[in-house]
Structures are given as C-alpha cells and as structure tokens.
Amino acid sequence: MRLDKTEGRGARVAAWLGMVAVYYLVDLTLVHVPGATSGSAGAALREISVWYAMTVWVAYYGGIIFVLGTPVKRWLTGRFGEDRAYLAYEAVLGIVFLNQGFSQAVLMFAFGSSFPAAIPVWLSWTAGTVLIVVGTVFKLWSAHLAGLDTFYCRDMFLDRRIDHTDSGDGSGLVASGPYRYFRNPMYGIGTVHAYGFALWCRSVEGLALAALFQCSIYVFYAVAERPFINRVYAPCVRSSA
Prior knowledge:
It is built from 10 helices and no strands. It is mainly α and about 240 residues long. It has one domain. Helix 8 runs antiparallel to helix 9 (about 205-230).
C-alpha cells in the first residue's frame, strides 16, 4: 500500500484507490442516505459499525503484537526471506491502517449526535478543529522524521535497528522535532485528531473508540516495542555516553 516505493507502484496505487473507492461507495449507498441512522436501519448500522470497529481493533492491535512481539516474525523471514516476508506484512498492515480510519469514521457517524444538548455545537466544532489540526500536524511531522519504514515497524519486523541521520547519540533513534519533547509523539499528541473528528460528529461513542485505539497502541508499546527498543537501541545509547 506504500505509494512512496517504486517497485510495484502501479499495483499499490490500484489497491489504494480500490480500497478508498469501496469505502466511499459504501458510505454513499449505506451510510449517508436519508434515514440511515434512525429506526431499524439505524440500529443495524450501529451494530455493523461496532462489529467493524472491533474486527479492525483485533486485527490491528492484536496482529502487530502477535507478529512483532513474538518469534512469528523470525519464522516468516526464515520461511519466505526478508524481502518477501516484509512486503507481505507491509501490504497487510497498509490495508489495516486504512480500515482503522474507516472504521472510526463509520462508528462516529452511526453514533453521531449523542452529545448532551447542553454542549453547544460551536464548542464541539471549535475544539474538534483544533484537535484535528494539532493531531494531523504532529502525526505527519513525526512520521516524516522517523520515516515510513519506522512507521511500518520495519526495524521490529527484521529485528534490527534502523539508523537516522539526525540521531545525535548514534543510537538510531530520532531525537529532533517533537521527539525532543515527547517520547512517543505519534502515539500521544499525534492521535488527538481522532478525538477531534468525534467532536465534529458529537459522538460520545466515537470518543470512546478513539480512546480505546490510543490505549491499545500504548499496550503494544509496553509489551512489544519498548522491550525491542531497550534490547536493540539502548545499548547504542549506553556505549556512546
């Protein structure tokens, strides 16, 4: 799904466009139609949106913990070779990335307008806009500095470090931009845009889903990513101190 890579770019673009087209086709024909959120149709849409979100939650957070936090990654690279194994992992992760955003959008719409009437619409829109802007800027900024290979956890999948030219201590860890002030800007402030969209939809359930997804990525960090960083990157920090 990564469009920055040259190999197989035509297939990657086609896959990406196909996924987006399917989402918007479903969105126009099933979600954003008169009466979609009321009566029996609304109940069905809300049930489907919950199942969709929970399926993506298990596939994404459970999947990356299972693949990157266990010997499964070493079995895959040993069985198929590093290049083929990572290519397949990367493609699947790209699809799940898209569905993570899609599932939140569907649930926020299905459970929209659930805020108490006492909360003014202008307040939720203003706060939501601020969070969307801040979260998007920090997410893109952090991803740009770390690189898409790190965004896709290539170092964890191949079980070795990836160097960054801006790493002042030689550890390979990014130390500039938001990483100077936050340990995990992509997981923290870089995810607040999800809360912003929930505020736009005035969806209490959307806020809860955004919180669940954010908490889950910190679970992944605690059980899989941090042990990897301590094992692979930390020795470089200690040796350069």
